[in-house]
Amino acid sequence: MLRILLLIFSFSVIKFLQAEDGSRLWLRYVPVCSIMQEELDNRIAFIHTDAVNPTIKLALEELQLAVKGFIGKDISVSKELKDRSLVLVVGGSQLAKKLKLQTQLDKMHRDGYLIRSANLYNRKLTIIASPTATGVLYGTFHWIRLVQTGALNAGMQEVSEPKYDIRMLNHWDNLNGTIERGYAGYSLWKWSELPNKLSSRYAAYARANASIGINAMVPNNVNANPLILSDSYLPKLKALADVFRPYGIKLYVAVNFASPVALGNLQNADPREIEVQEWWNNKAKDIYQLIPDFGGFLVKANSEGQPGPMDYGRTHADGANMLARALKPFGGIVIWRAFVYKPEDRDRAMMAYLEFMPYDGKFADNVIIQVKNGPVDFQPREPFSPLFGAMKHTPTMLELQITQEYLGFSNHLVFLAPLFEETLKSDTYTQGMGSTVAKVTDGTLAPNNYRAIAGVANVGEDTNWCGHHFAQANWFAFGRQAWNHELGSRQIAEEWIKMTFNNDPAFVEKIAEMMIQSREAPVNYMMPLGLHHLFAWGHHYGPEPWCDVPGARADWLPKYYHNASEKGIGFNRTRSGSGAVDQYHPPLNDIFDDIQTCPEKYVLWFHHVPWNHRMKSGRTLWDELAYKYQEGVDTVRNFQKIWDRSEQFIDKQRFAEVQSKLRIQSRDAVWWKDACLLYFQTFSHLPIPFELERPIHNLEDLKKIKLDLKHHN
Ligand code: GCW
Question: Which atom of ligand 1 is least distant from the CA of 180?
Answer without folding.
Answer: 10
